[in-house]
Amino acid sequence: MPELPEVETTRRGIEPLIVGQRLDDFIVHQPRLRWPVCPQMATRIQHQTVHSCLRRGKYLLIEFEAGYQIIHLGMSGSLRHAPADAERLKHDHAEWRLPNARLLLHDPRRFGAILWHDRAAGPILEHPLLHHLGVEPLGTEFTPRTLHQGFKNRRLAIKNALLEGKTVVGVGNIYASEALFKAGIHPETPAGALSLYRLRKLHEAIVDTMQKALDAGGTTLQDYLDATGAPGAYFDLHAQVYGKEGAPCPRCKRPIQRMVQNQRATFYCRRCQRR
Questions:
Q1: Residue 133 located in a structural domain
Q2: Which end of the chain is more exposed for a tag (fewer CB within 10 A), N or C?
Q3: Which candidate in 11, 55, 56, 58 is catalytic?
Q4: Rounded-to-10 torsion of CA 133, 145, 242, 237
Q5: What SS3 state is found at 145?
Q6: Quick check: is 58 catalytic?
Q7: Are residues 75 and 154 in the same domain?
Q8: Distance separating alpha carbons of residues 53 and 79, to the nearest angstrom
């Protein structure tokens, strides 16, 4: 699934192409995504100017005069820039046509979404999909005490506590495994059992992992494409434990272990990560 670094990479790629531009047309080729695309959306935004291109967690927010499009890339989706005369691919389900850009939403599994939030409905961050999200991991509000307060008295395993996104948002499955390895924390450790000292190490590991992923363009799927259609590099270049079951630990050389937590694969070192 495209995670926060991938979505932020996409946002940075499309922002200079669309902000300040007037939308010529919004075309939906396949409305049956995770949730049906509103049939009136094209009419609402046609010929309106794009005011901003934002991100909250894994959601892209494209702002128009009338409101916002909320875009989620699903399990394997991508939003890319393509020439005006380029052939539409089989799983290109929606496109935005602007004077200087043509964006295409490619989503083979159709788990992505394009939703509409009308400005009259209130602030965009109060939308039901956004209001419960935790702080951004690369923002100034994210501190060790954020983790300490959010995980206080919680028995949930730390890996699962990170994935739920209520304390800090966007630390997906791969990045959670990588950050816990860097911090030396066993993924089954109850979140509330971690001391502030260990949470400081986890905070540092999360920031470092996410920043390096963002710097590299990110990727949580080997076929992920960024806004230009180029593959990201993080998975291949930097993953130390994820997907490496049986390979030697980068630190102690013992085999990396794999287990399943809440139906998600977790990779860790039994010796280097303690409860």
A1: no
A2: C
A3: 58
A4: 100
A5: helix
A6: yes
A7: no
A8: 13
Q: Is 2 a catalytic residue?
A: yes
Catalytic residue among 110, 200, 258, 264: 264
Q: Is there a single domain that holds both residue 119 and residue 212?
A: no
Q: How many residues does the chain have?
A: 275
117/212 same-domain check: no
Q: Which regions of 29-91 does DSSP assign to beta strands (E)? A: 52-56, 59-63, 67-72, 78-81
Q: Which pTM was predicted?
A: 0.87
**Six-digit token pair at 244?**
């490496």
Of 258, 243, 185, 174, which is closest to residue 209 (Cα–Cα)?
A: 174
Does residue 232 fall inside a structural domain? yes
Does the annotation count 123 as an active-site position? Answer: no
CB 106 within 8 A of CB 228: no
Token pair for residue 35? 């949730």
Domain count, the chain: 2
Full pLDDT tens readout for the chain, 275 residues: 678 888 998 999 899 999 999 999 999 999 999 999 999 999 999 999 999 999 999 999 999 999 999 999 998 899 889 898 999 999 999 999 999 899 999 999 999 999 999 999 999 999 999 999 999 999 999 999 999 999 999 999 999 999 999 999 999 899 999 999 999 999 999 999 999 999 999 999 999 999 988 887 754 434 344 445 444 444 455 789 999 999 999 999 999 999 999 999 999 999 999 99
Q: Over the Cα atoms of the chain, what is R_g?
A: 20
User: Which of 7, 275, 252, 5 is closest to 159 using CA atoms?
Assistant: 275
